[in-house]
Amino acid sequence: MSEIVLECRSLTKRFGAVRALDGVDFELHRGEVRALLGKNGAGKSTLVNLISGSLQPDGGTISLEGRPASWSGPAAAQAGGIAVVHQEFSLVPGLSVAENITLGRWPRRGGFVDAKAVRELAGTALRRLGVVVPLDVEVGSLPLADQQIVEIAKALVDDPRVLILDEPTSALNAREVESLLQLVRRLAAAGMSVIYVSHRMKEIPLVADTLTVLRDGKLIATEIVADVSSARVAELISGESSDHAAFVKRDRTAEAVVLAVTGVSVPGRLDDVSFRLHEGEVLGIAGLLGSGRTELLETVFGLRDDATGEVAIAGTPYPRRRPKRMLDLGVAFISEDRKGSGIVPQLGVGENMLLSARGRVLPKFWLRLRQEAEIVAKTMSSMSVRASSPEQPIGTLSGGNQQKGVIGRALAADMRILLLDEPTRGVDLHAKAQIYGLIRELADRGVSSIFISSELEEIAEVCDRVLVLRDGRIHEQLMGDEATAERVLALAMQQEADRD
Questions:
Q1: Which candidate among 110, 113, 192, 257 keeps its CA 20 to 30 Å from the CA of 21?
Q2: Are 236 and 214 in contact (CB under 8 A)?
Q3: How many domains, the chain?
Q4: Residue 148 sits in the same domain as residue 297
Q5: What's the half-sphere exposure (Cβ side, CA atoms, 13 Å) at 294?
C-alpha cells in the first residue's frame, strides 16, 4: 500500500446535543480515490468540512503527510494542500475562464494584474487535467460540463495533496459523466489523492478504489470497491436491505387532461413542442443537457417571456402566465437550482414549507399558528425531513433534507400539478426512494407530475410515460416498461449518433 497522505483519528464534532461525527477514523493513501458514502445527514459534509478547515473538531486529530494539521479556516487548509470542489459552483459568470481559475491568486506586476501570467497559470492547471477550454471566454457562457472542469482546474492551481469532489456529476449528462470520471482517474494515476462524495452508486465502481460508509455520524465500514456488491453497499448506507418492490406503472392517457401544451417554442431552445399531461400521471421528459428540458418547465410555469405557444390548465388557456398565478391554479415548480431558487436559507424549515400555503390552504392576512404547526409537522413527517425543529434554518440542513423541504412546500400547499426538475439531485439513496414513493403515492391520489432527471434509471423506474426531447423537439414517446434507461439514452443521443 502506498504512503498515507491524509490521516484522521477519532474525529468528533457536535452541534448542540447532536453528535454529527462520532470518533471517526479515516485514512487516504497517495493516488487513491476514496468514495465517501452515506445518507444525507450521515456526517459526510461534517467530515469534509473538518478536513478542509471550514469547521474545527471537538475531538480527534488530522494529519497531512505525517504532520499535524490544524487549519484556522478554508484558506489555511487550501494553502496547506487541501482543495475542495463543492456541488454548488463558486464561479463568477462575468469573468473569463482564466480569471476564474486564478481567482484570489491573480499575479501582479507593478501593482496591476498581470494578464499574461493569469493566462499562463490557468493554462497550466487545464493542461494538468488534459483538457482544452478557451481561456478568454466568459465562464457563464460555457456548458455545465466545462464549468465543472473550470471548478476543478481552479482547485488545482495550488497543487493540492488532497482533492475533495462533492457530487461532481450531479449536473452532467451520461457522456459528460464518463469524461469526468476518466479525468479523476488520470489525476489519481498522477499521484493525486481524491475523496469522491456521491449518491450515484453506479459511478463508484468506475472511479473509486475504496469506499467509506458513514451512518449517523459513525464510521460503518471501509471496503475495497472490487470486493463489495452494490446491494451490500446500499445496505451499509441505509442499515437495512435495499430491496424494494417495483412501482406499478399505469396508462393514464384515458384520464382527464390537466395540462395541455400546444406549439410551445423558445428561440434557440424549443421548437413547436406539444403534449398532454393527464390526471394522476407521472410523465417523464428525457433528454441530454441542452435539449430544452428545463426551458420547457420554465415556460409552463410562466418564467420565460420569450416563449410562444399555448398552455392550458384543465382546458382553460392561460396566455399571460406568472408564477403566482400558476401557484394559485395548483401548479408548483421544483427548480433544479435548490440553493438559488428553491429555499430561503435563513428561514426555518417550517417557514419554508408554508411559503406557498398561506393564502391558499391557510387564511389570508391572519396567522393560524396551531393549523400551521399541524401542516408543518405532517409534512416534515411524510418527507422524513431530518431537523432539530421546524425553526432550524433550512440552509443549515444537508442538501437532501433541503430538497425534501422544497418538495414539502408543494405538498403543504396542496398542489395538483408538480413540475419536477431534477428533484433528487444531491439526494441519497434512501431519500431518493422516499421521493419516488411519494410521487407515486400522490399519483394514486390524482396529483399529476412532470419529472425531469439526468439519471435515466430513475425516469425508467418512476414514470408512467416518457417523452424524449432532442434538439428542442419531442421525437419519441415510450409507454410504461418500454422506457428502459438504455432505450431512453439511445433515443436521446440519436441525433448526435447520426451526426457522427
A1: 192
A2: no
A3: 2
A4: no
A5: 12
The reply to whether 101 and 178 lie within a common domain is: yes
281 shares a domain with 394 = yes
Whether the model pTM is above 0.85: no
DSSP secondary structure string for all residues of 355-401: TTTBTTTB-SSS--HHHHHHHHHHHHHHHT---S-TTSBGGGS-HHH
403-437 pLDDT, tens digit per residue, is: 888 888 888 888 999 999 988 877 777 778 888 88
* Cβ proximity of 38 and 215 under 8 Å: yes
Which DSSP symbol is given to 227?
G
Query: DSSP string spanning 230-281?
Result: HHHHHHHHHSS----PPP-----TTSPEEEEEEEEEETTTEEEEEEEEETT-
For residue 22, give the H/E element and its range: strand 18-29
Residue type, 247: F
Helix (H, G, I), strand (E, B) or coil at 449: strand
Distance of CA 196 to the CA centre of its chain: 14
Q: Report d(CA 427, CA 299) in Å as an integer.
A: 26
Distance, CA of 418 to CA of 109 (rounded, Å): 55
Residue where a domain stops, chosen among 210, 238, 266: 238
| Sign of the C-alpha dihedral computed for residues 318, 319, 325 and 330 taken in this order | positive
Q: How far apart are CA 157 and CA 163, in angstroms?
A: 12
* Residue written as grid cell 440542513: 397
pLDDT in tens, 126-158: 888 888 889 999 998 887 778 888 998 999 888
CA distance 491 to 473: 12
What 3-state DSSP class applies to 128?
helix
In a domain, 375, yes or no: yes
Report the alpha-carbon distance of residue 310 to residue 263 in Å, rounded: 7
Average pLDDT over the chain, rounded to an integer: 88
Can you tell me the distance from the alpha carbon of 163 to that of 207, in angstroms, rounded to the nearest whole number? Answer: 14
In angstroms, how far apart are the furthest CA atoms of the chain?
A: 73
**Which residue, chain included where needed, has cell 441525433?**
495
Residue 423: what are its φ and ψ, rounded to 5°? Answer: -70, -15
- The 8-class DSSP code of residue 341 comes to I
Q: From 238, 268, 288, give the residue that closes a domain.
A: 238
Within a domain: residue 248?
A: no
